[in-house]
Amino acid sequence: MRLRGHGIYDTRVLSAMEAVPRRYFVPDACYEQAYADMELPIDCGQSLSSPLTIAMMTQVLEVGPDHKVLEIGTGSGYHAAILSRMVTRVYSIERYHRLIGAVESRCRQHNFVNIVLRHGDGLQGWRGQAPFDRIIVTCGLHAAPTDLVDQLTDQGRLVAVVNGRLCEYTADKNAAPGDIVGMTLPLFETGKSKVL
Fold first, then answer.
1. Is residue 57 part of a domain?
2. Is residue 76 annotated as a catalytic residue, yes or no?
3. Is residue 158 part of a domain?
4. How far is CA 30 from CA 22, 42, 70, 161, in A?
5. Looking at the predicted structure, is the pLDDT value of residue 184 above 70?
6. CB within 8 A of 68, min separation 6: which ones?
């Protein structure tokens, strides 16, 4: 798998990505590019991140099999499906009803039974299901997601792209957020997603 050559070494991430066909999650018009390492457009003006970006964010998240995971920005459902192969249950919030309906259909069709979907404002999180061991924000942000950090367990970790940089946040309110990848990720241009 080409991801190994780009610093993706977590075997659980690699196995999950190999087990989940990306073609299930791309629009028909992009079917030929399903396995290209590129961002692809989906409905509602949103996009499906490249496999490398998804692998990198998932590796940094350091998901354990017993972790309770919240994903902000369901999109096509691809990232949630990958996470679902690594944990018992994934909770995912999406702001577009249309995308939620499509993901529900894909989950039924392809037997992704441990993904719980909700329509709503992802930046508010999911207090009724909190706390979470891991939270991943799959869209670019302008500022640290403090409301989401408050929904982490004591040992929790949140991964998000803030102002173009991949960042990690922990539940330790005294710790400064760590800039964990020393590079700008142009696929996560701040403001690309208008709500976030």
1. yes
2. no
3. yes
4. 11, 9, 27, 25
5. no
6. 87, 88, 89, 91, 129, 131, 132, 133, 134, 153
Give the pLDDT score at 61.
95
CA dist., res. 189 & res. 192, Å (int): 6
pLDDT of 193 reads 41
- Give the pLDDT confidence score for residue 140 in this predicted structure: 84
DSSP bridge pairs for 70: 91, 135
Boundaries of domain holding 73: 2-188
Any domain includes 195: no
104/87 Cα distance (integer angstroms):
19
Q: By the 8 A CB rule, do 160 and 169 touch?
A: yes
Burial class of residue 104 in the structure, from the number of CB atoms within 10 Å of its CB (0-12 exposed, 13-18 middle, 19+ buried): middle
Domain count for the chain, please give it.
1
Average pLDDT for the chain: 87
pLDDT grade for 37, boundaries at 50, 70 and 90: confident
Residue 170 belongs to a domain: yes
**More confident: 49 or 6:** 49
Residue of 47, 49, 76, 193 marked active site = 49
Domain containing 101 — which CATH number? 3.40.50.150
162-178 pLDDT, tens digit per residue, is 888 888 888 875 555 55
